[in-house]
Amino acid sequence: MNLGYLGARTVAVRLLRMPVFTNNLQGAEARSSEDVKSAGRVEALVQLLRSRSYEEIRQRMYDSAPGSAWWEACKAELELRNGQQVAEASLAMSRASEKMRASTQHFEQLADTLREATNDIAELLRGTQEAGRRLEIAVYVTIGVTLVQLFNLIFLAFRKR
């Protein structure tokens, strides 16, 4: 993965373009040519560090004096790798966020379907309850008619004797 804004060349160019405030212009010109040589050396060292491990680069940076070519090269390479890790983590977070959004939409659809099914079942239960009440009334009527006919039969049986 190559992030152009964190490349070694860009870091070297940034170092070159950094303003230098001085009262001595001749010393600044001499340092400017030294900076160009140093930036070229830093770029070459960064290329050398590409195949090294993260821990080895950090150790070399700590072993070098701040501001030295090795220190600058190690710093540039570590910033590049850290930038790549941030970019990869950002991409992973973006993908996870997209998956979470899709899952949330799916759960919302499932919740709507569940709510509709619950309403349908509630309506069926209300209908069943009304049918149960009608059945209860029919059973009471049947029991009443049966009792009336039983008494009528008993009455007819006692009447003949």
Structure in a nutshell:
By secondary structure, the chain is mainly α. 85% of the residues lie in helices and 0% in strands.
Notes on the structure:
With 161 residues, this protein is an all-alpha fold. It has one domain (4-160). Helix content is 85%, strand content 0%. It contains four helices and no strands. The longest helix has 92 residues, at 69-160. The radius of gyration is 44 Å and the shape is rod-shaped. The relative contact order is 0.07. Mean pLDDT is 81; it is low at 1-5 and 20-31.
Structure keywords:
mainly alpha, 161 residues
Number of self-contained structural domains: 1
The amount of beta strand, in percent, is: under 5%
Instruction: Give the % helix.
Output: over 70%
Average of pLDDT: 81
Structural class: mainly alpha
Q: Give the distance, in angstroms, between the N- and C-terminal Cα atoms.
A: 113 Å
Total DSSP E strands? 0
How large is the count of helical segments?
A: 4
Sketch the major β-sheet: none
Q: Secondary-structure element sequence? A: HHHH
Shape type:
rod-shaped
CA radius of gyration? 44 Å
Low-pLDDT segments: 1-5, 20-31
